[in-house]
Specification:
Structural class: alpha+beta
Helix content: 25-40%
Order of helices and strands: EEHEHE
Distance between the termini: 31 Å
Length: 72
């Protein structure tokens, strides 16, 4: 199986654009908590679409976390 590099992408609720991209879950989590944001933080593979990665790896979804006012 191919190895992928990953980033963490945060998308705020009711906003069409991505709000931020992080190299680690810890950095992303701290930023979301500090800013008390509501949205979804998703671990995304680099150089392949999330849908394609799920199909290739027989996965239902990518790792992700929901936040409500900075609380996971």
């Amino acid at each position: 199986m191919k190895e992928y590099s990953w980033v963490w992408v945060f998308k705020r609720d009711n906003i069409s654009m991505v709000s931020a991209v992080f190299s680690s879950l810890e950095k992303a989590d701290n930023w979301v908590k500090l800013n008390k944001l509501t949205g979804v933080l998703t671990k995304m593979p680099i150089d392949i679409g999330g849908y394609d990665w799920c199909i290739q790896n027989n996965a239902q979804m990518l790792e992700h976390y929901h936040y409500q006012e900075g609380i996971r």
